[in-house]
Design brief:
Largest sheet: 5 strands, mixed
Order of helices and strands: HHEHEHEHEEEHHHHHHHEEH
Helix content: 25-40%
Strand content: 15-25%
Length: 291
């Protein structure tokens, strides 16, 4: 039998994919599956003034040590303002058991899980339909879709599209995009990705005002509303953050309180036997935030 402490040390890293796989293999439903970059560098150029806030991140034993090495860097991670006890124990995209309390720059904040996905470089991405629906973009940002479509067409017509070279139609954009990814060499694909990211930045800058509201307004509310049908709230909300500064580590102890101490991470550490009490602490702390 392994101890609870040994159990929490085990487990796989967060799910990641290569950028080329994310961009070329997945837009099978057309524009609604298009990936939007949540790049800290792009955000800094479009919105120079950052929203800095206290927030929390759930992870496993090794994840705490990895996060220590990320402090002050541009690489982004997923965080939260609110979480249910079961998700602390089980984790979200990694093993759970540890909650890191930290200050961070907020790139995106949403009242539910928006499924932001990291590529292997650490840059996170959102699906366009998520911005429209889960983040409440709707009519505020719908016009942006035409610019996204135009960007794809501009990239496509510059390259060899085989059967899609003549008579490229809007309905075939996704098929042509997948074909382009499968039939381009490494150098060509790198140039396409660069043009894609540069084009995305120009479009995001054009719609900077409504996007800023969509991405940041939840930082003012920071509470989860019950679902209209079930009455239940989401398991957690989601923030995409970077430039983190760890303040404290909270650990779920189970029945083994006293097994952990501050020497495990060289950081202030608080042990919690009752995960409900930890979740309540998080809620109280979040509600005291002044931005």
């Amino acid at each position: 039998m392994i101890t609870f402490k040994q159990y929490l040390k085990e487990g796989p890293p967060a799910w990641t994919e290569s950028l080329s796989t994310m961009l070329f293999d997945l837009p099978r439903a057309g524009l609604k599956d298009l990936k939007i970059p949540l790049s800290p560098a792009i955000f800094k150029r479009i919105w120079p003034e950052s929203v800095r806030s206290k927030c929390f991140h759930v992870t496993g034993f090794d994840g705490v040590r990895s996060l220590k090495k990320m402090q002050g860097k541009k690489k982004s991670i997923s965080a939260f303002y609110n979480i249910k006890p079961a998700s602390i124990e089980d984790g979200i995209q990694t093993d759970g058991g540890f909650v890191v309390e930290m200050m961070a720059d907020i790139l995106v904040a949403a009242p539910d899980d928006i499924g932001s996905q990291p590529d292997k470089t650490g840059r996170r991405w959102l699906v366009w339909s998520t911005i429209l629906k889960e983040l409440g973009g709707g009519s505020k940002i719908k016009k942006m879709e035409k610019d996204l479509e135009k960007l794809l067409i501009e990239i496509l017509v510059k390259n060899d599209l085989g059967p899609y070279k003549k008579g490229l139609t809007t309905s075939e954009l996704n098929k042509a995009w997948i074909y382009l990814g499968k039939n381009s060499d490494g150098k060509t694909k790198s140039l396409i990705i660069k043009n894609y990211i540069d084009g995305m930045e120009k479009i995001m800058k054009k719609y900077s005002k409504p996007l800023q509201s969509i991405f940041k307004d939840y930082t003012k509310k920071r509470t989860l509303d019950p679902d209209e049908d079930s009455g239940d709230t989401e398991l957690w909300d989601e923030l995409v953050v970077n430039n983190v500064k760890i303040e404290k580590v909270h650990v779920a102890t189970g029945d083994e309180e006293g097994e952990w101490d501050e020497t495990d991470f060289d950081l202030p550490l608080t042990q919690w036997e009752d995960l409900g009490d930890l979740a309540d602490y998080i809620v109280r702390t979040v509600q005291k935030i002044k931005l």
